[in-house]
Protein backbone atom coordinates (compact mmCIF):
# COMPACT_ATOMS: atom_id res chain seq x y z
CA UNK A 1 0.00 0.00 0.00
CA UNK A 2 1.32 3.39 -0.93
CA UNK A 3 1.90 5.86 1.80
CA UNK A 4 0.28 9.24 1.99
CA UNK A 5 3.33 11.18 0.72
CA UNK A 6 3.48 9.16 -2.53
CA UNK A 7 -0.22 9.66 -3.17
CA UNK A 8 0.13 13.38 -2.47
CA UNK A 9 3.05 13.65 -4.91
CA UNK A 10 1.13 11.82 -7.63
CA UNK A 11 -1.96 13.97 -7.14
CA UNK A 12 0.14 17.13 -7.14
CA UNK A 13 1.86 16.06 -10.37
CA UNK A 14 -1.49 15.45 -12.03
CA UNK A 15 -2.89 18.79 -10.91
CA UNK A 16 0.10 20.64 -12.27
CA UNK A 17 0.02 18.93 -15.64
CA UNK A 18 3.06 16.70 -15.20
CA UNK A 19 2.51 13.22 -16.47
CA UNK A 20 3.74 10.18 -14.67
CA UNK A 21 5.23 7.28 -16.57
CA UNK A 22 2.01 5.32 -16.09
CA UNK A 23 -0.02 8.21 -17.51
CA UNK A 24 2.24 8.31 -20.56
CA UNK A 25 1.95 4.55 -21.06
CA UNK A 26 -1.81 4.70 -20.70
CA UNK A 27 -2.04 7.49 -23.28
CA UNK A 28 0.22 5.55 -25.65
CA UNK A 29 -1.94 2.42 -25.35
CA UNK A 30 -5.10 4.46 -25.92
CA UNK A 31 -3.58 6.14 -28.98
CA UNK A 32 -2.47 2.76 -30.39
CA UNK A 33 -5.93 1.28 -29.80
CA UNK A 34 -7.61 4.24 -31.54
CA UNK A 35 -5.18 3.92 -34.45
CA UNK A 36 -5.86 0.18 -34.83
CA UNK A 37 -9.64 0.74 -34.74
CA UNK A 38 -9.32 3.45 -37.39
CA UNK A 39 -7.31 1.08 -39.60
CA UNK A 40 -9.94 -1.65 -39.18
CA UNK A 41 -12.72 0.78 -40.11
CA UNK A 42 -10.88 2.09 -43.17
CA UNK A 43 -9.96 -1.44 -44.32
CA UNK A 44 -13.53 -2.60 -44.01
CA UNK A 45 -14.96 0.36 -45.88
CA UNK A 46 -12.36 -0.07 -48.63
CA UNK A 47 -13.23 -3.76 -48.89
CA UNK A 48 -16.97 -3.03 -48.97
CA UNK A 49 -16.44 -0.46 -51.70
CA UNK A 50 -14.35 -2.92 -53.72
CA UNK A 51 -17.00 -5.60 -53.20
CA UNK A 52 -19.65 -3.20 -54.48
CA UNK A 53 -17.50 -2.37 -57.52
CA UNK A 54 -17.01 -6.09 -58.17
CA UNK A 55 -20.77 -6.70 -57.83
CA UNK A 56 -21.60 -3.74 -60.08
CA UNK A 57 -19.30 -5.18 -62.73
CA UNK A 58 -21.16 -8.50 -62.51
CA UNK A 59 -24.41 -6.55 -62.97
CA UNK A 60 -23.03 -4.87 -66.08
CA UNK A 61 -22.86 -1.42 -64.53
CA UNK A 62 -20.15 1.01 -65.55
CA UNK A 63 -19.20 4.65 -65.07
CA UNK A 64 -21.61 6.73 -63.00
CA UNK A 65 -23.97 3.81 -62.38
CA UNK A 66 -21.09 1.78 -60.95
CA UNK A 67 -19.99 4.65 -58.71
CA UNK A 68 -23.56 5.27 -57.52
CA UNK A 69 -24.07 1.60 -56.68
CA UNK A 70 -20.75 1.45 -54.79
CA UNK A 71 -21.66 4.58 -52.85
CA UNK A 72 -25.08 3.14 -51.95
CA UNK A 73 -23.57 -0.11 -50.67
CA UNK A 74 -20.93 1.69 -48.60
CA UNK A 75 -23.54 4.07 -47.15
CA UNK A 76 -25.80 1.15 -46.25
CA UNK A 77 -22.85 -0.65 -44.64
CA UNK A 78 -22.04 2.38 -42.49
CA UNK A 79 -25.69 2.64 -41.45
CA UNK A 80 -25.94 -1.07 -40.64
CA UNK A 81 -22.37 -2.24 -39.95
CA UNK A 82 -23.06 -5.98 -39.69
CA UNK A 83 -21.04 -7.58 -42.48
CA UNK A 84 -23.70 -10.27 -42.89
CA UNK A 85 -26.27 -7.61 -43.76
CA UNK A 86 -23.98 -6.16 -46.42
CA UNK A 87 -23.27 -9.58 -47.92
CA UNK A 88 -26.96 -10.48 -47.97
CA UNK A 89 -27.80 -7.13 -49.57
CA UNK A 90 -25.30 -7.78 -52.36
CA UNK A 91 -26.37 -11.44 -52.66
CA UNK A 92 -30.00 -10.42 -53.25
CA UNK A 93 -28.94 -8.34 -56.22
CA UNK A 94 -26.54 -10.93 -57.63
CA UNK A 95 -28.71 -14.04 -57.11
CA UNK A 96 -30.54 -13.61 -60.45
CA UNK A 97 -27.11 -13.59 -62.11
CA UNK A 98 -26.15 -16.95 -60.59
CA UNK A 99 -23.76 -15.59 -57.97
CA UNK A 100 -24.39 -17.00 -54.50
CA UNK A 101 -23.68 -15.82 -51.01
CA UNK A 102 -20.75 -18.24 -50.66
CA UNK A 103 -18.91 -16.69 -53.60
CA UNK A 104 -19.63 -13.20 -52.28
CA UNK A 105 -18.24 -14.13 -48.83
CA UNK A 106 -15.08 -15.55 -50.43
CA UNK A 107 -14.64 -12.36 -52.43
CA UNK A 108 -15.24 -10.22 -49.32
CA UNK A 109 -12.61 -12.22 -47.40
CA UNK A 110 -10.09 -11.66 -50.21
CA UNK A 111 -10.90 -7.96 -50.39
CA UNK A 112 -10.64 -7.56 -46.61
CA UNK A 113 -7.22 -9.18 -46.60
CA UNK A 114 -6.04 -6.99 -49.47
CA UNK A 115 -7.42 -3.79 -47.89
CA UNK A 116 -5.86 -4.62 -44.54
CA UNK A 117 -2.51 -5.29 -46.16
CA UNK A 118 -2.68 -2.07 -48.21
CA UNK A 119 -3.41 0.06 -45.15
CA UNK A 120 -0.83 -1.56 -42.92
CA UNK A 121 1.96 -1.29 -45.48
CA UNK A 122 1.42 1.92 -47.45
CA UNK A 123 3.65 2.39 -50.44
CA UNK A 124 3.59 -1.31 -51.27
CA UNK A 125 1.78 -2.15 -54.51
CA UNK A 126 -1.30 -4.28 -53.99
CA UNK A 127 -1.85 -7.46 -55.94
Explain this structure to me?
This protein has a single domain (4-120), classed as Major Prion Protein. It has helices at 4-15, 21-58, 63-79, 83-94, 101-120. It contains five helices and no strands. The protein is mainly alpha-helical and 127 residues long.
State the main characteristics.
single chain; 127 residues; mainly alpha; Major Prion Protein; 78% helix
Topology:
Blueprint: H1 4-15, H2 21-58, H3 63-79, H4 83-94, H5 101-120
The global form is rod-shaped
- Mind telling me which CATH architecture this is? Orthogonal Bundle
Reported by name, the CATH topology is Major Prion Protein
Low-confidence stretches at least 5 residues in length (pLDDT < 50)? none
**β-sheet strand percentage:** under 5%
Order of helices and strands: HHHHH
Number of strands: 0
Count of the domains? 1
Largest sheet: none
Rg from alpha-carbon coordinates: 23 Å
CATH level-4 homologous superfamily: Domain of unknown function DUF1476
User: What's the number of helices?
Assistant: 5
CATH class term: Mainly Alpha
Residues in helix, %: over 70%
> Which secondary-structure class do the elements indicate?
mainly alpha
Q: Overall mean pLDDT score?
A: 86
Distance between the termini: 56 Å
